[in-house]
Amino acid sequence: MLKKRDLNDCHVLFNLMVHPDVFPFVRQKAYSLEEYMFLTKQTMEEEERGNIISRTILDEWNNPIGTINLYDVQDGNGFLGTWLGQPYFGKGYNKLAKEAFLSELFFEKDIHTVFMRIRKENIRSQKAAEKIPYVTLANETRKDVFDRLNKDGHIYNLYHVEKDNYMLYHLRAKQELQEEDQLKEA
Question: Rounded to an integer, what distance in angstroms lies between the CA atom of residue 172 and that of residue 186?
Answer without folding.
Answer: 21
